[in-house]
Amino acid sequence: MVKGLLHPDDAKRAAGLGVDGIVVSNHGGRQLDRAPAAIDMLPAIRAAVGDSCTLMLDGGVRRGADVITALCLGARFVFLGRATLYGLVSGGLPGVRKAIGILRGEMETVGRQMGCDAVTDFDAGRLFSPSP
Q1: Residues β-bridged to residue 124
Q2: Are 57 and 38 in contact (CB under 8 A)?
Q3: Which positions are annotated as active-site residues?
Q4: Which of 95, 71, 69 is nearest to 84 (CA)?
């Protein structure tokens, strides 16, 4: 696994070296506040590596809709650090469970609104893209 790649060429090179997975992340933008958001780079990285390795997204996930967007754009796993951390701080383990439950409920609602019955139904064709 390699974390912190944002450029498609870097991802392609990592995939060529045989990594099992890439975590697309800008590390929260703490070091370089002008770095692109991980979600914005996900489609280009997916196009660069194809299905040669698992793509994961870390950063910027606040709602269930963010998880679904990442899945539609090529992520196969999405980290939920902030939401679960807030749940932990506010309520311990029950707070973490509550935070995950909220995200899950949001995902189910948005998924139904998109006409998806399963996580495998999410793809880029489900997202709005304005015509040029």
Answers
A1: none
A2: yes
A3: 27
A4: 95
**93: which residues sit within 8 A by CB, 6+ positions away?**
none
CATH of region 2-126, choose from 3.10.250.10, 3.30.450.40, 3.40.50.10610, 3.20.20.70: 3.20.20.70
Q: What pLDDT sits at residue 40?
A: 93
The pTM for the full model equals 0.89
Bridge partners of residue 54, in order along the sequence: 21
Bridge-based pairing of strands 54-57 and 77-78 is parallel
pLDDT, one tens digit per residue, over 49-74 is 999 999 999 988 999 999 999 999 99
Please tell me what DSSP assigns to residue 124. Answer: G
Query: Strand, helix or coil at 36?
Result: coil
Domain ranges of the chain: 2-126
**Which residue do the tokens 């935070």 mark?**
99
